[in-house]
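Blackboard transcription, Thursday session:
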Amino acid sequence: MLALLDGVSYAGLLFLVALGLTFIFGVVRILNVAHGSLYACGGYAAATLGLWMGQGGDSLALSLGALLGGALLVGIVLGTVLMLLLRQFQDRDPILQLLVTFGAFMIFEDLQRMIWGTQPYFVSDVVNQMGTSELLGVVYMNYQLLFVPGAAVAVYLLLQWFLRRTLMGRQIVAVTHDREVATAMGINAKRVAYLTFVVGAMLGSLGGALASPTTSLVPGIGADMIVLSFAVVASAGLGQISGALIVALMIGLARSFCVYLMPEMEVVMPYVIMVLVLLMRPQGLFTVAQARRI
Amino acid sequence: MRYTIYGAVALSVVVLGLAAAFPWLKLPLILALCYGLAALGIVVLLRAGQISFGHAMYACIAGYVVAYLSQRFPHLDGFALIGLGTLASLVAGMLIGAFVVRYREIFFGMLNLALSMVLFTLLGKFYAYTGGTDGLRVGRPTLLGVELARNGFETALLVLVLVCSLLVIWGVQRYFRSSAGEALMAMKSNEMRLEYLGISAKKLLWQGYVLSAGLCGLSGALFGLSQGLVTPEMGYWLRSGEFVFIAILGGSGHAVGAFVGALLYEFLKMYAAVLVSGAWQLLLGATLIVIIYFLPSGLTGLLRKRRAALGGEQ
Amino acid sequence: MFKRTAMTAGLFAFTLASLASGPAFAEAKPASLPVGITTFMSGPASVFGMPAKEAAQIYLDELNAAGGIDGVKVDPIYIDEGVGGDRLLSEYRRVVQEQGAKVMLASISSGNCNTLAPVAEDLKVVNILWDCGTEKAIEGHQYQYIVRSQANAVTEMVASVLYLLKMKPDFKTIAVVNQDYAWGRDSWDIFQSTLKALKPDVQVVAELFPKFGASDFSAEVSRLQVLRPDVVLSTSWGGDLDTFVRQASQRGLFKTSRFFLALGESSLERLGSSLPDGVLIGARGDHYFLEPRYVNDPKHKAFVEKYKAKTGVYPIYSVYHMMQALDAMTAAYKKAIAANGGQWPDEEQLAKAFRGLEFRGLTSPVTIRPEDGQGLEDQLFGTTTTSPDYKFKVLKDIMIVPALLVTTPAGQATPEWLKTLKPELLDKVSLLDKQQ
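(Written on the board underneath:)
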């Protein structure tokens, strides 16, 4: 009942971030540890833009604009930087590539600290502007109850439409499925990879931007979020978009229920789920079985 | 064999020399060597081509066992505590390893990560039993029955950790040279062929996994005892990441690499914090990327190249 | 082969020789006095820790300008508690051993105090517990070098219960939302025990412990909205408290329950209008820039003006605690020097000087008990109300509780002493009867 509603909002945020991660993995086959920084920087950028555009103001449009603007900016800038960096290591061991993203994560953490400082940021105008609703005697913020899950679903639908109906989208699907064959058919895999990377980065920073009004931004939120997104992505199956939505929902609801029934287990739940899923279905819940190549 | 002796002597000279010149460095040196032990555990797995982002949990398990025992049984000797802590990690490694060795690559890493996060969050939550995020204190035990004041205790611990490290270097290097160790390396290139030879890859990986869990456990037990404090942070994924960083820095060519890497890492961290306070993570991240670009086999990789150049002698 | 043996032998001898030499004793007046100060400089708790750093800077600049302590300038070394207990411990040791700090002020977090106190005692360096509340840092140990220049959790929580019962004598249910670490847990234990002794018929409907530094309390707020307790207690502080209050306020939780924020004074200005009227506030001592008895006191007034000029905001209780600790340090040195015949004291003499020390920070005087080094300071409580002069809430219905009434006597164990409390204790305290 009520636990459901709390869980849905949290699931929405988780899905957006995990979506970016799984999207990137699908195409470049790298698990991007720096995704956590994208989340954090997206949040910070959104907060800064929000402050710049008028703290305490009443314009909903401006607040939303700040959020989206921050996300887009960070996604494009950091996404490009990461892409260029990874290109230098293109033919190396995937483990080394993962470590490169880990190094990038450390660099971004400090850059973030240097740009935005160590004091917490709290820019929650958009939450106040959206008002509240009352359900079963409990007052909820519309932002958390409707906007965030709504945005997550909207992004999901948009992405599915993009991947299935547009040429670019189908090219991405082709490259994800089999890069070699796609290149043989004339698709510029490099450009496709770049585009996907930037889109994935933007999704990560969008997650951060949407999270920023309800949480206080401090150094270290990137590290916490990255492990959670890993949990979602690994459980769903790497590269599975619909799977990520379902798993994110699962984790969000499980966590909510925990707060009501067993508050002590609340933080453990996502990882327990991940362990159980991986033990039962090592490839993730929704991965299509692939033939083993010898 | 010659390289092992050179490496061991160089290591001892550096460590003891620094400790003598700057007595306050004793504890940081002990901690650096502990990191080296854990990184060596990662190196063992690296040889099989697998990376675990959750091995800090074994250090954590050993540390908490040490802390818990020292609180419950204050008269237990330091050696007993270290032994029991390491044993706990070995047992955990055996149990967890049995499940985990079925996975490879990303999933291996992810599963280890997940398990370590479960441990981390559990330790942080159950305040009454584990001290929560504040952690547990570890009192100063006797060492082989001798009660020591702080200075003497730190010196004794430093010598103990150094001796452990040297023994471990020798032992692990012999393991690398043994048939089991060489077969482990074969797993990296083609596991299927190994199976065709009649060797169970899973069993091989399990052996390597238990060894690495034991090394991380030893590291954690010594760490907890030296710090006097164990916190859930000992099992956080960033800590595992640090172990991996050091393992890459040192390279998997020779067991001593992990320790050289660890000392380098600690000093980088310490002086980066002093010189460019607030940007030390940046420095470390950049160093990691640079190392991967120019020296993907780490510092000991240089050794390999030199050996190959000399005609592949022992 | 020979060269290697000689090298090893020589090194061995060198090692033995240097290890045999003990530490040098410095009893001559030093050129400068390095003092280590731990505070939160990063993370959500930094909104609480940075003001204290500013205050320390003001105090020490003034002190050094006047010549320092007996002519010795004080050199502060700030350590960030935000790096976590592990790294803090290493930093602490390094500052004491490498930089030779002679006095340490540590720390804010009760968890860190529990960790650092034994280490300080081990290193034989005087450590002033300048802000942490847990009584367990001192109680039960026989420390020589650890002192506390402020009250502890027992004083504060027992006094809190008294204020709550004075202001809201009939309530049936209570819920607690505390940070999940030493302070959050210990403070609740004491509050609960006291409440049981003074008003046994109260029912605890929820005990929620979100993690320290949590950024989202939506689930806790939802739970409380369902349970609707009469009173919600929180001993949270810093960024955590700010976020919690904002989120609770947005969703109307303040309308359904009466809130008691035992450490709320530190968030009054930051929260502004997010904090409604009628909230019960504690200040961990009589630390309030509008303290009725000291608002016109020259020392207090001058400092508040100076602080506001430098930082743009009014001082909060972390600032008061810092000033108290530094005043205690200066007073102790003066006392030790006098007792030592004008000579600079060593660590042991300095530690002794703290016992029985009486000093004054910005408001009322504080005494450090000679038996265990625990500080005794009176406690202030108030209720929020709007004021035309300030953009944030101020306090009315102020009550001052004397420390001796509500602190575990030296040598006794807190859990046992709490059981001996009687409801008659409530008659011994009353409101200050001054409107703010």
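Lecturer's comment: The first strand of chain C starts at residue 32 and ends at 39.
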